[in-house]
Write a structure and sequence with these properties.
Blueprint: E1 11-16, H1 18-21, H2 24-36, E2 43-48, H3 54-59, E3 72-76, H4 96-116, E4 120-124, H5 143-161, E5 164-166, H6 168-182, H7 198-212, E6 217-224, E7 229-234, E8 236-243, E9 247-254, H8 266-269, E10 274-280, E11 286-291, E12 294-300, H9 301-306, E13 308-309, H10 317-351, H11 359-370, H12 376-390, H13 395-411, E14 417-423
Parallel strand pairs: 1-2, 1-3, 3-4, 4-5, 6-10
Antiparallel strand pairs: 6-7, 8-9, 9-14, 10-13, 11-12, 11-14
Helix pairs in contact: 2-7, 2-10, 4-5, 10-12, 10-13
Length: 425
């Protein structure tokens, strides 16, 4: 299988439809690279468009995607390419030929896009249409069968062209099957049967990191008290190690921050958040763990021999720093999302061949587009994003994103701190 390595200075295009445009899975991805590889400046660009197809992406290559000068691209299309509406119960049987043609056209446009986009390619199979879970929503049953055909084509194309393949379709189907065994409505896909929820995006990020072969380890420190020796030390250093009858203490110097995960996303991304302290050879009993003089909990000798996951302990000062990095990254992602909405307007206006200098036609078009949203607040937000684009002020979003990048790079280095392990009397 083709391998891809992300290196310092890489510029990575994330090209897709609304699942990409939402910006959630790449928020997890960028969190990982900001915290795990703090010295590397790898830029990810959200180049997703809501409602987009591979054909649309081909049409916006020169004035949107390729303007970022990326040397690597992650490509995921399929959901809109298959025209899932063709599978609505009332018309499904009448649309058999259109369904086949949609798959054929989608495959053709995906291949054409990967040939023209430039740089190294990672081809991601589309996330599934949820046609099996009991969600209480209209079901375009059969839509996922077409997506399976797109996924099969992606696999064949990746093998022929030497692209990195990331099989999101199969990974999510397996997890959805597991979840349905617990409850009939169990799924990583949302109620609309199309868009993955936040946990689905966590799974997408996990599969990408696995395919890239990224390290699961924040750091590992293993010490044997019986022989008084370090057994293993990974991605960290130790300074001023002191042993006593009561326990041990040392200055812990990690090379990376942990990920700041919430309770839900942790179940899919904890694999890539291993910050382990393991101490063997301790006399039986309980031991108090202090991180930077803060009480992190009391653990038995057996628990310490098995290993303590430092990444999730509230007393960990680097967890607090990671949360700050995440908050900055979230703000950066929000600015990028707003910028993508403004780009979406340009695509729609170009498709309708509307002259941007014709103010009347432009205003009528944006009113028509914004009126599609039932939520009045989002309706006003969409209109505001358009006018910012039309006046050229959306460039401010890019400036704010750049400022966020610089702020992140100033604070994404781990802190050294003292770890103390004291036997309870």
């Amino acid at each position: 299988m083709h391998k891809m390595n992300l290196r310092n200075g890489d510029r990575v295009a994330l090209v897709g439809d609304s699942i990409t445009a939402a910006g959630q899975y790449h928020l997890f991805l960028t969190d990982y690279y900001f915290t795990r590889r703090p010295k590397d400046k790898i830029r990810f660009y959200n180049l997703g468009i809501s409602g987009g197809t591979a054909n649309d992406a081909n049409l916006r290559l020169d004035w949107d995607i390729q303007t970022k000068n990326c040397n690597k691209a992650f490509v995921m299309f399929g959901m809109n390419d298959i025209q899932y509406q063709l599978f609505q119960a009332a018309v499904c049987n009448q649309n058999k030929e259109q369904q086949k043609e949609a798959v054929k056209s989608g495959c053709y446009n995906i291949e054409r896009l990967t040939e023209q986009i430039g740089g190294e390619i990672a081809l991601m199979t589309p996330t599934p249409y949820e046609q099996l879970a009991e969600l209480g929503q209209k079901n375009c049953f059969g839509a996922d069968d077409s997506l399976k055909q797109i996924a099969a084509f992606d696999k064949k194309l990746a093998k022929e062209k030497g692209y990195l393949l990331i099989d999101l379709h199969m990974a999510m189907l397996r997890e959805n099957t597991r979840l349905r065994k617990k409850e009939p409505g169990g799924s990583l896909v949302g109620a609309d049967r199309i868009h993955p929820g936040i946990l689905g995006h966590a799974l997408i990020a996990r599969e990408i990191l696995k395919a890239l072969g990224e390290s699961e380890t924040v750091s590992v420190f293993e010490y044997d008290m019986e022989i008084r020796a370090v057994c293993r030390m990974k991605n960290m250093r130790v300074h001023d190690l002191k042993l006593s009858e009561e326990g041990m203490q040392f200055i812990y110097q990690p090379n990376s921050l942990p990920l700041a995960l919430d309770g839900e996303s942790e179940q899919y991304l904890s694999l890539f958040n291993q910050e382990i302290l393991r101490v063997s050879g301790l006399p039986k009993g309980k031991y108090r763990l202090l991180l930077d003089r803060l009480d992190a909990g009391t653990f038995t000798a057996a628990q310490l021999q098995k290993g303590i996951q430092l990444a999730v302990l509230e007393a960990n000062p680097n967890l607090q720093r990671a949360r700050y990095v995440h908050s900055l990254n979230q703000t950066r992602s929000e600015y990028e999302h707003k910028h993508r909405i403004s780009k979406n307007f340009l695509i729609k206006l170009k498709a309708q061949k509307i002259d941007l200098t014709d103010k009347g036609r432009v205003e009528k078009a944006v009113e028509s587009y914004a009126s599609l949203y039932d939520n009045k607040e989002y309706y006003q937000f969409v209109k505001e994003m358009f006018y910012r684009f039309n006046m050229g002020t959306d460039k401010g979003f890019l400036e704010e994103m750049e400022r966020m990048y610089q702020d992140i790079y100033r604070v994404n280095r781990p802190l050294d701190y003292r770890i103390e392990l004291l036997r309870c009397i």
